[in-house]
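User: Here's a structure from my thesis project, written as structure tokens. My advisor, Dr. K., wants to see whether a designed sequence matches the one we expressed. Can you design one independently, without my sequence as a hint?
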């Protein structure tokens, strides 16, 4: 049986972050693992930042219209928004439920959108894929969708992320992004739910004892200015660096050159950055929030979410313990090997086949 599968690829245009990278990696793996099917990349065909009104038009009008015109057998929406009009069976990937769970992290309009739309979007879809058991449990609690309509399919980590450094590892990445020679690293969007205020507070407690600066890499999200103000108020302007968005091809060397990767998020549906850091053999410290223990296993050090004292202590003790660092560097790649995009694709093909057979 050959299927024609439409995949929402609008998120792959422009600067690619979470959903865009997920979609690209999944699409490439699907073509490797199951080349007998046809995969149609659906997007608006313009490399621009999507305003909220254009995003709504894309998800609710253009995407289903193009799927209908292409006569696809299935439509896979890799973001959160299932179209009301379904010209064919729709599979929806839900990466997290941060909006309904933590509305205070978003502006008022976004709060209303998440509270009203996510439960309906999940109900409109014919089948839902979640990135983790934690997200599946959240969906079951918040949306009342039958468990039989939700399946956990873990994302993978690209083989580009590995412990072997590039020959010019340190110099090139530091020069390109104006980085210090030794640093602690965070990668991700700069917004309140990422727990960066906890990281900055913890770093301020131990910075005078460390030779490492702190690098916070990622694009600005909701309320990012508050973090910049906190860094300035604490007198850390010369020790905390914000290189902005880092191109995907530069991320492996960015991770490898870090002495520690710290991920203090208050909620994650999966948490790809700490897994990428583990794959690179970089010691990882992360919060014990939501899906993170599920993803990092015993290969990372966990601290209680939001506890800046515990984080400060863990950072300092890890940097002072060479044996611990070596153990973490060995354990990280082994844990990361449990998550491959080829396995993600194989499980997604099972989902496609199941949905198609059940609805035809």
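Assistant: Designed independently from the structure alone:
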């Amino acid at each position: 049986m050959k299927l024609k599968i439409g995949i929402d690829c609008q998120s792959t245009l422009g600067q690619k972050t979470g959903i865009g990278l997920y979609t690209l990696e999944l699409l490439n793996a699907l073509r490797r693992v199951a080349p007998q099917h046809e995969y149609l990349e659906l997007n608006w065909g313009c490399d621009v930042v999507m305003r909220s009104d254009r995003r709504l038009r894309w998800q609710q009008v253009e995407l289903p219209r193009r799927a209908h015109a292409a006569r696809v057998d299935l439509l896979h929406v890799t973001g959160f928004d299932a179209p009301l009009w379904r010209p064919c069976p729709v599979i929806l990937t839900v990466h997290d439920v941060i909006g309904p769970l933590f509305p205070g992290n978003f502006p008022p309009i976004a709060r209303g959108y998440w509270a009203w739309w996510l439960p309906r979007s999940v109900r409109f879809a014919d089948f839902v894929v979640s990135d983790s058991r934690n997200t599946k449990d959240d969906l079951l609690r918040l949306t009342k969708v039958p468990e039989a309509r939700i399946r956990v399919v873990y994302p993978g980590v690209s083989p580009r992320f590995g412990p072997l450094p590039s020959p010019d590892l340190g110099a090139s990445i530091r020069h390109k992004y104006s980085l210090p020679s030794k640093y602690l690293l965070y990668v991700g969007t700069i917004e309140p739910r990422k727990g960066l205020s906890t990281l900055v507070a913890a770093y301020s407690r131990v910075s005078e004892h460390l030779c490492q600066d702190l690098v916070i890499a990622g694009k600005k999200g909701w309320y990012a200015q508050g973090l910049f103000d906190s860094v300035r108020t604490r007198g850390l302007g010369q020790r905390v660096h914000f290189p902005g968005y880092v191109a995907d091809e530069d991320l492996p060397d960015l991770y490898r050159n870090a002495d520690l990767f710290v991920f203090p998020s208050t909620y994650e549906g999966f948490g790809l950055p700490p897994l990428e850091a583990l794959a690179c053999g970089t010691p990882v410290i992360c919060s014990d929030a939501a899906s993170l223990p599920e993803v990092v296993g015993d290969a990372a050090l966990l601290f209680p979410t939001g506890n800046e004292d515990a984080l400060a202590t863990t950072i300092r003790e890890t940097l002072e313990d060479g044996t611990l660092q070596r153990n973490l560097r060995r354990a990280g790649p082994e844990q990361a090997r449990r998550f491959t995009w080829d396995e993600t694709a194989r499980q997604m093909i099972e989902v496609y086949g199941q949905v198609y057979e059940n609805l035809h």
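When you compare it with your expressed construct, this may help: The chain has two domains: 4-156+340-358, 168-337.
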